[in-house]
## 1
Amino acid sequence: MLASNNPRRKSWLDIPEGSDFPIQNLPFGILSRDGGPKKVGVAIGEYALDVSALYDFGYLDLNLYSHETFENDCLNDLINLGKEANRALRERISYLLSDETFELKNDTKRDLFLIKQSALDMHMPIKVGDYTDFYSSIEHATNVGTMFRDPDNALLPNWKHIPVGYHGRSSSIILSGESIHRPKGQTKPDDSDRPVFGPCRLLDFELEMAFITHPGKALGGSISTSEAEDYIFGMCVFNDWSARDIQKWEYVPLGPFLAKNFASSISPWIVTMDALEPFKVQGPSQEPAVLPYLEYEGEKNYDIDLRVYIEPEGEKESLVSHSNYKYMYWNMAQQLAHHTVNGCNVRGGDMMGSGTISGPDRSSYGSMLELSWKGTQPVQLENGGERKFIQDNDTVTMRAACEKEGVRIGFGEVTTKVLPAI
């Protein structure tokens, strides 16, 4: 066990009970204060640790890192140092914040290191070079196949043999708190032979997690399932917005385009895979047996509690979905192995979406398409209203956390308001 993951480790900082950010977490993000420069930060309780100040005052290895690593507008330079350098940094920060030492606690310059998160501005943590979205929840794929194809043959013939995915648009990945406008595009009414143009009528969220990669192998090389975790930096909550009516008309024959590339929203803190190590669980049984390059050993799924809320303007939020990442049929190691088996090279800061995460019953479905069963069974809200899909001025919030042995590893939240089309 890494020392940073010890459930008995305590911090000299006062961390509220139930915080997403105990000393066992220490996720990374990009922050600024009062319009100042952007810097690498680490969340701890209600505070954030300015890692560039920590470096400048000699608390970190001056040979392994540089000031420019941490006074930076993204995490990419840090990620590009690789797994071992990032692990060493997290271990060092954990020690400095623990009650095993008081050198940081007793430093008279401590206020330069630790700032209340409420006083900070958060920024996009990653410059996403490439973005891939998978389709890896068997419950979600079965639900969609049942609604739109044959209930007796809901899964397409390839689904249980490959982690199906597509390459998405990285430029429209945005940070939690940034509003989006309802997208526009072509749709085809059921009672017409011709398409029409206008705002999307069936706007949907997709409950996902995303993982961020370290630099992979050179072009032509492949990453195996046994190597995959060495090439994954961490994870965030991911809302992959979807325009269902636009998608229905455009996706044949090449798949998602305008229905998906208008926006995807992420949470600001990236939780490292080291912090998630204690929450590994066994995944679903895979039948038929997968090809050898997709075989893996050990526990590769993660027990991450996921919740989605809808908040109409001026109303309280309503919980509409309660799912878990452990349901995923295809795990991250298999996704990365499949992505690179043809020699495709991944770079530091590339992002891979899990695909919509749905569980075994309606309350755990990860999209409004499923929750309302294509609009035929409206979802009831706390205020007495209902939703079939997302309406203008609704705010959608997703939250994620792991809990075990009294330790909660949270991801924070991704929240996005939908504004009318422009």
## 2
Amino acid sequence: MTPLRLGYLYGLGAYLLWGFFPLYFKLLRPTGPLEILAHRVVWSVAFVALLLAAMRNIGFLKALRRRPRALAGIGAAAALIAVNWFTYIYGVNSDRVVETALGYFINPLVVVLLGVLVLRERLRRAQWIALGVGALAVAVLTVDYGRLPYLALTLAFTFGGYSLVKKRLALPAAEGLFVESAVLSLPALAFLGWLMATGDATFGHVSAGHTVLLVLAGALTAVPLLLFAGAANRLPLTSLGMLQYVAPILQLGCAVLVFHEPMPPARLAGFVLVWLALIVFTVDALRHARQTRRSRPATAPSPVAVQAAR
């Protein structure tokens, strides 16, 4: 199998798993969002630790101790992903899967906006148009909901911020997930201990199947991230960008077809505007990537690119 085909399989596997997450988290009821989050963190640490031990790749921790700025960045990434995970679990288990899907639809637009606000990047005209249409979509959805779609915006901005921090840290997927989960594991264990002491824990008190599902939350967190890392190493960025829409499409399908959440005309109009913004954004990205490929042979490689190739 060619690396490109393998990359597509890895990427599709990751986004299919993320797309069907709502079905999984619904099975964890009556466990509350904070308890699910705590189990997700703790069992992620255990799963990835076993994986790294099998790969004999624990030595990276010593190198991290000599990088205080990297440790601070990992702390920020851990806080952002914890808020993101909690918001998503809360949204699913409060029957607002449509709004969580919206968050991941608008995430690419939020990443572009963060590039302007944080990295001072300059946008092309089509990117500004996409952002404008996206803002109009949020306004339409605000009128429909009678409030800002705050779950969607929280998901989009926390995952966008997480992506930005992760890009600067440049840690491999397994190592990064292990350290981030380890940072969160102490408060997670303390919270689970408090639940057990007060008799409010659901772990081990609902059914054997429910207990197994809570334990498997760690593997279910790690596996798609590892598949995504495998895809990112083999696919062009534009191909990876196209695959990212698989997950929110499946989540929206679960919300409307499986959970029967309402989709009134005004809400559908807001989603259509989001999709229009994404079409403009994607077409511009594909065109820009094609122009870059055409101009690359005529341009001498920079010393930085040569050094990176080595």
